[in-house]
Specification:
OB fold (Dihydrolipoamide Acetyltransferase, E2P); five-stranded antiparallel β-sheet; mainly beta; elongated; 10 strands; 49% strand; 10% helix
């Protein structure tokens, strides 16, 4: 499978919390990290999502926000992965930010160049990748 999503994480379903229309799916990543996804109940059934099932969690880089100096900041976004900026690729309009996580994985964000400048992003700066649960797409092997 080839996909355009910059972020693709292998993990396993930790839990499924059903709601009236959507379910919240907790995906365990290596190293004790977790991603929360919100998917329809139909998708939970069609994909056979149950605790322990191997999945791939996909997130487009354009859906990832970058947070620096976020101590004490409370957000409605369910996913906040803390790490360190490992690389920056600057273009005339956008900047790709790579955030290395403690478990060795990398999260990519595409933000505006002005935003990267305003945040003072440089390699080695602590940063968090923030994204909402509905931005996570869950895939399973066929």
């Amino acid at each position: 499978m080839k996909i355009s999503a910059r972020n693709a994480f292998d993990g396993s379903v930790q839990s499924v919390k059903p709601g009236a229309i959507n379910s919240e799916v907790d995906v365990a990543l290596p190293g004790g990290l977790k991603i929360v996804a919100t998917v329809t109940n139909d998708s939970v059934a069609e994909l056979g999502l149950v605790a322990g099932k191997a999945v791939k969690a996909l997130v487009k880089a354009s859906s990832v926000l970058v947070l620096t100096d976020g101590a004490g900041v409370k957000l409605s976004a369910r996913n906040r992965l803390e790490g360190t900026v490992t690389s920056l690729t600057e273009g005339p309009v956008s900047t790709e930010v790579a955030i290395g996580l403690p478990n060795g994985l990398t999260v990519y964000a595409t933000i505006t160049r002005d935003g990267a400048t305003a945040l003072g992003l440089k390699v080695g700066v602590p940063a968090a990748a923030v994204f909402k649960a509905p931005s996570v797409i869950i895939g399973v092997a066929a």
